[in-house]
């Protein structure tokens, strides 16, 4: 018989980089009775969330909301703008960039793949150079991941757009913000992004089940001539009903209740403070890692993620064994290594509904786990983080 709760005392620490902890007030909102998704009350809800989510993306353009995971939003971005045989330029930053590439290939797109080492961000200059070589303009889209969840590396999207503009290339820019939206400063309009992809289960503080496409004017124009098959994902089917707060098929009504509450929380805190909070907790976490004498996976200090931190375990030791010890002894879940990083790293999520004490509890669990699992380290990482948090007031990054 499956035992779902081995630790009845206290609250489980869910410190993976998504799904993240769902605030109690969001859970209470989701728990409301389901209403008629064709009725006037739902129309008001739909208009509210469709307007509110634009602020988080930093856009005045439409945002389409699907009942789906982030993978669905990847597919929607591609099938609404491209045709069979089109070439897309994609950049390997980690496991999720690789999965997006695989999906593009399955759709019948030709993928020009810029390989990476999973420890550095997107090289905007390399993208610009590849586009400059494309004299026949065969590349129709550039797809990049803003914050690579598998590695803890964040890429500079404004630099990518600048490189594309210098190359004078008309390709669309598509960006995955699944683990950055609501956690890391993002500006769809200002950075000239054509399609932004996101999901509900990370910085938006919701359970999995909603995905998003923020759709700029150039992408909307491309949707009129794109020939990849689409039905469920068709933006055109969505945008008509969305104008009045409705959807062309049954939406995730109760998750939209939760989204309404989550947006209210983000607006009340203020997005600049939200982003500063994430950066402050990330810096404290990196100080803890340095205090333990362990190595960050991310090698570029300018690209360290504010949403999560990926940590290499010493050679000859198992990251998965460490994670099992921490789960069994302290009832805390940490993110595993994915793809070629399997068993080599553990990932500490510090995004979403999160505060200083939650972070300190998380880092205490890691430090105790390192000792319990016999992983070589120096004590004092938690102390270094606490000293930083104490001397650096909330709202500052130090």
Automatic annotation (TrEMBL):
<feature type="modified residue" description="N6-(pyridoxal phosphate)lysine">
    <location>
        <position position="202"/>
    </location>
</feature>
<keyword id="KW-0663">Pyridoxal phosphate</keyword>
<keyword id="KW-0808">Transferase</keyword>
<feature type="binding site">
    <location>
        <position position="347"/>
    </location>
    <ligand>
        <name>substrate</name>
    </ligand>
</feature>
<dbReference type="Pfam" id="PF00266">
    <property type="entry name" value="Aminotran_5"/>
</dbReference>
<dbReference type="InterPro" id="IPR015422">
    <property type="entry name" value="PyrdxlP-dep_Trfase_small"/>
</dbReference>
<dbReference type="InterPro" id="IPR000192">
    <property type="entry name" value="Aminotrans_V_dom"/>
</dbReference>
<dbReference type="InterPro" id="IPR015424">
    <property type="entry name" value="PyrdxlP-dep_Trfase"/>
</dbReference>
<comment type="similarity">
    <text>Belongs to the class-V pyridoxal-phosphate-dependent aminotransferase family.</text>
</comment>
<dbReference type="InterPro" id="IPR015421">
    <property type="entry name" value="PyrdxlP-dep_Trfase_major"/>
</dbReference>
<dbReference type="GO" id="GO:0008453">
    <property type="term" value="F:alanine-glyoxylate transaminase activity"/>
</dbReference>
<feature type="domain" description="Aminotransferase class V">
    <location>
        <begin position="17"/>
        <end position="322"/>
    </location>
</feature>
<dbReference type="GO" id="GO:0004760">
    <property type="term" value="F:L-serine-pyruvate transaminase activity"/>
</dbReference>
<dbReference type="InterPro" id="IPR024169">
    <property type="entry name" value="SP_NH2Trfase/AEP_transaminase"/>
</dbReference>
<protein>
    <submittedName>
        <fullName>Serine--glyoxylate aminotransferase</fullName>
    </submittedName>
</protein>
<keyword id="KW-0032">Aminotransferase</keyword>
<dbReference type="GO" id="GO:0019265">
    <property type="term" value="P:glycine biosynthetic process, by transamination of glyoxylate"/>
</dbReference>
